[in-house]
Structure formats: C-alpha cells, structure tokens
C-alpha cells in the first residue's frame, strides 16, 4: 500500500509543518507516503487538478459531512482500500473553502476526521496523525507519542 495526500494549499505555519512532518516520517516507516500540494488559485480547474493528482488511486475525500470513523475503523477501512487496484490510497483535503462540490459528488469515499470543523491546515495535521495511528493499530504495535 502507498498513501498520497493531495492537499489544496501549502502547510505554511512552521509549527504545524514540523508536527505533520514528524507524523509522516513515522508513517513512512511502514509504507511510502507522499504529499502533493496544489495551488489554491480558486475553484476554476481545481476538480481536474485534484483528479490528475490522484492518478488512478483509490480516492477518499475528507469532508466534515463524510462518514464518521473512530481510529480503529479508519485503520480497517484504510487497509481494505489499500488492497484494491494499484494499492494507492489518495486522501483529498480542500483549502479554506473545502473541496469543490463536484469532487465530493464523484468521490467513491467521503470520510470525516471529526464531528468538529477544523481549519484545513489543522485537518492535515490530524490526517497525518491518524495515518500513523492506523499503522500502529494494523500492526498491533503500541502508539508512541
């Protein structure tokens, strides 16, 4: 399995970038994980740029109105998606305005990271942490803080 995080905008705040990088390095101990940052130049053409960045992966759109998951279920669903097709799972994260409606409508999976609404930058950090937590759950390893 490989993970691809496709995010609209850059994770600029240094503290958030360092935290996200720390979790992503932990994820990479288990499997390849890449980040693709798309310019937040407005909605025009964004859907096609997101689709192109997914490149045939199993797509999960992250949305506050998506399917609510606890960490164990997140891990099991991630594992199931990783067994499909090319074994690549792409997580789509929108910018300040979320993902375009046409992307959400076409996404085969829509997951919510929380019932709370997070700023897109914080959602990215939460995703990185949950990916690491999923790896430890799937491997039956203790969660190292």
Kindly describe this structure.
It is built from five helices and five strands; from the N terminus they run E-H-E-H-E-H-E-H-E-H. With 145 residues, it is an alpha/beta fold. The protein has a single domain, classed as Alpha/beta knot (3-Layer(aba) Sandwich), CATH 3.40.1280. Strand 3 (58-68), helix 3 (71-82) and strand 4 form a beta-alpha-beta unit. The protein is globular and about 45 Å long.
Structural class: alpha/beta
Order of strands in the sheet with most strands: 2-1-4-3-5
Unreliable segments (pLDDT under 50, ≥5 consecutive)? none
Basic shape: globular
**Oligomer status:** single chain
What CATH architecture do you see? 3-Layer(aba) Sandwich
The major pleated sheet works out as: 5 strands, parallel
The CATH class is identified as Alpha Beta
Q: What is the string of helix and strand elements?
A: EHEHEHEHEH
List keywords for this structure.
145 residues; alpha/beta; Alpha/beta knot; five-stranded parallel beta sheet; globular
In brief, what are we looking at here?
This protein is an alpha/beta fold.
Tell me the layout of helices and strands.
Blueprint lengths: L1 E7 L5 H14 L5 E6 L7 H9 L3 E11 L2 H12 L5 E6 L7 H6 L2 E4 L7 H20 L6
């Amino acid at each position: 399995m490989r993970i691809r995080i496709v995010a609209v905008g850059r994770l600029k705040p240094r503290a958030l970038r360092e935290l996200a990088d720390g979790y992503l390095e932990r994820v990479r101990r288990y499997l390849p994980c890449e980040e693709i940052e798309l310019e937040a130049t407005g909605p025009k053409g964004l859907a096609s740029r997101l689709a192109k960045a997914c490149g045939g992966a199993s797509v999960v759109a992250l949305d506050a109105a998506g399917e609510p998951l606890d960490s164990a279920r997140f891990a099991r669903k991630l594992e199931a998606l990783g067994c499909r097709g090319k074994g690549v799972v792409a997580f789509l994260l929108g910018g300040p305005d979320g993902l375009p409606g046409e992307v959400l409508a076409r996404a085969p999976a829509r997951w919510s990271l929380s019932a709370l609404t997070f700023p897109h930058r914080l959602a990215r950090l939460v995703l990185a942490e949950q990916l690491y937590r999923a790896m430890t759950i799937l491997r039956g390893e203790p969660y190292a803080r």
